[in-house]
């Protein structure tokens, strides 16, 4: 068979005349182009812990906690369970960790009954930037020892803040990335399961990139804020400092 | 060609095609998941599952874009026709990579919760209008379901069962699937992406697909816009000079109504059949006469000139048309004969 131009027959043993070189180039383009694209896209994937999580200038640098951790501190309630470690030389305001259970469940913390009591909690510490969380699958053990007074809330006035609502667990390093719209479904499930909600601000507020999120009355922000999770939103409300964390009592827009 | 259905009728070309395809996918995933991460600051590396989601998702998008570009490229340059052959294997691989992306998401974002994973997938997005933008998860799910249907019906059994026209119509759903994938990324990952690489990939891919289809459409429209002139005796149409068709090749004419008709010359014999291959409606007129048979440029299906029948043991049949020579000109009757009807070829002097 002679053909004036290339003609390909799939069941033939060889490609038609003039096609061999073209098909070799096409194969080479696939075998070189695809890995090159993978290299570029993989190498340039967004930093899961970008500047928003950086510890703010002037903020206290947190010392590493042991892993797994056996921590003793003051259990605090509202808007989410918190474990407040007493002040020391390195942490003059003390050190406050969000508390969570395993998976996407808030955990076995009866803060209403144990608020203001000294407890011992075993778990695993997640930390990213200035946000810390103790993940524990076991209920805290009440300690029979005198407890210091819970840190007083210090009002910082009303703020209008732009940022993103997400769950404290993924944002603290449970997932990388743990924020962003692609992560919204995961964050929503976490918050549905009563994992503590946080607000990642686009600009630092009083030296904090991350604030614990509450509703206007100081309670849990979900389900009222559920549809806003994972999106850049601007919320207004009162901000208060509790020991070394900020709580944002946001109003629904 | 199909005398009976087999899982895959392997040929050397299919093996090479699949080898290059699978190797390309594995190299892409390896470069994305491994080599690309070695080049990053260790403090910025993503978790393995999130990385896999991005790798599988972007790979599926690239494969889908390539699959959609092959058709118009083959219309613009015949050398791309070999890439059209076996494109269904590319489609099946694309579905499997997209499914891997979905399984990674299900096993990471939708797992570890008291809510069942599939329920969570369908209930975690805000309703339309409840939040800015659109829910992007359902778009991805819809695209995956379409890809599944296309992959599941990609075998020639379904082509025969549904008929080529219905099968082709069904597989046009690849276009809404692609639009859904673009929207899935645009209303999802791109909303919070800080690096432009993915936006360039998705925007560039969509623009390439659109541009190639427009270019191929314009070319096809120019080629197909001319209606064959009527001969002096209705309903006969004037084909042109009898010796204008190169030996071993075909030409097409468009009748006033109906599909194009292909006219082939084999030595001094000239015959006319429908331009639509019985396999997948491929453009037979762009084929060749090989071993005395009209050979489709898409998948190599073959038909005899004199009756439009595939040689035994194959069973496909084409509609034939009556031709006649009037002086130096060829005339064609645009009324089709039933498929497989023998028509004596016009003999050229």
UniProtKB/TrEMBL annotation, chain A:
This is Uncharacterized protein. It comes from Roseomonas fluvialis.
From TrEMBL, chain B:
Its cofactor is [2Fe-2S] cluster. The chain crosses the membrane at residues 16-35, 55-76, 88-110, 130-152, 197-218. The keyword Iron-sulfur applies. SUPFAM superfamilies: ISP domain. It is found in: Membrane. The keyword Transcription regulation does not apply. It comes from the Bacteria. Residues 236-332 form the Rieske domain. Pfam families: Ferric_reduct, Rieske. InterPro entries: Fe3_Rdtase_TM_dom (IPR013130), Rieske_2Fe-2S (IPR017941), Rieske_2Fe-2S_sf (IPR036922). Keywords: 2Fe-2S, Iron, Iron-sulfur, Membrane, Metal-binding, Transmembrane, Transmembrane helix. This is Rieske domain-containing protein.
